[in-house]
Design goal:
41% helix; 9% strand; 3-stranded mixed sheet; mainly alpha; 11 helices
Length: 304
């Protein structure tokens, strides 16, 4: 297992080629528009005839270095992101600004937004680590969601702005909400590979099933189903009421869980949160609980 310092060095080397790889993807110029914070409607436009494919191998490598699979969820090496790792993420984020998403087809566009958002979440969470508590960090309207972190086609965007863009797709495929990863264990697992346009919907469906069927995530007790707060906060995109959300969950549940949910008629949310921090062995003597960290199940609201 690599130490945090060697990970930083590896990520820095990776970055040397990253901007060239990502920047070379743009085959058309970026449309220059006024930086109007209400101009998100511009990003609802796609090009159905586009065959442009974004190559994400560099981002694959970075995610694979930083994100660790752990018991059906994922953990992040936040210590390794500090310093050089944070600069790498910033450079990768800047690479997205060389591409006008309106020139992409809808699936390639969705993968673009989800990958950009994942990098912004990694960077913002690492900047906050280990100071604040996740329930404060992820409070709707917090600076985590609202800070403008990238300029795309002349428009300054935050994580909340990207959430609004992505959630427009929820009417056609509700499972897009499972791509809105957050830095807590009680949200969908952080991807270890970038989304691709050709497979983005299949990847989102797999992420949805993995989250619902994760051990202990959804619990049935008589007529009540206790679910992560992440699902409660996205209820309007997943049916609109408890009955519809239960139907959605049953549709994703494996047979054993589905049987347990058979008698459920109401929902309750588990509000607990725990940072999805991975502690390297070289940092084993450093506490990861308290403050920003903590234990327990629960969920989080995505800024939307």
């Amino acid at each position: 297992m690599k130490s945090p310092s060697s990970l930083r060095r590896s990520i820095t080397v990776i970055c040397g080629a990253s901007l060239l790889a990502l920047g070379a993807l743009a085959t058309t110029g970026i449309a220059q528009v006024a930086a109007d914070q209400s101009a998100l409607a511009r990003f609802e436009t796609s090009n159905p005839q586009s065959t442009q494919v974004i190559e994400y191998r560099v981002i694959d490598t970075v995610l694979d270095s930083l994100v660790i699979a752990s018991g059906g969820t994922s953990e992040v090496r936040y210590d390794a992101i500090k310093g050089d790792g944070e600069r790498v993420l910033t450079q990768l984020v800047s690479g997205f600004a060389t591409i006008d998403p309106a020139t992409l087809n809808a699936d390639e566009q969705l993968a673009y937004w989800l990958n950009l958002r994942a990098l912004l979440v990694l960077r913002s969470a690492a900047q906050a680590f280990p100071g604040g508590k996740p329930e404060t960090l992820l409070q709707p309207g917090s600076s985590f969601y609202t800070t403008k972190g990238v300029k795309i086609s002349g428009v300054d965007l935050s994580i909340a702005d990207i959430d609004a863009i992505v959630l427009k797709r929820a009417a056609a495929n509700p499972n897009v909400v499972y791509g809105l990863v957050l830095p807590v264990r009680e949200a969908p697992a952080f991807p270890r590979k970038a989304f691709r346009g050709a497979t983005v919907n299949a990847m989102l469906d797999a992420a949805a099933r993995a989250f619902i069927n994760r051990s202990g995530a959804v619990k049935a007790d008589a007529d009540n189903a206790k679910v992560p707060q992440f699902l409660i906060m996205h209820r309007d995109r997943l049916g609109g009421n408890d009955a519809a959300l239960l139907t959605h969950i049953r549709g994703l549940a494996a047979p054993k869980l589905g049987q347990k949910l058979g008698g459920a008629t109401r929902l309750s949310g588990d509000p607990r949160l725990s940072l999805n921090v991975f502690a390297d062995r070289s940092f084993a003597d450093r506490p990861v609980s308290g403050g920003f960290g903590g234990g327990g199940g629960g969920g989080s609201a995505a800024g939307s």
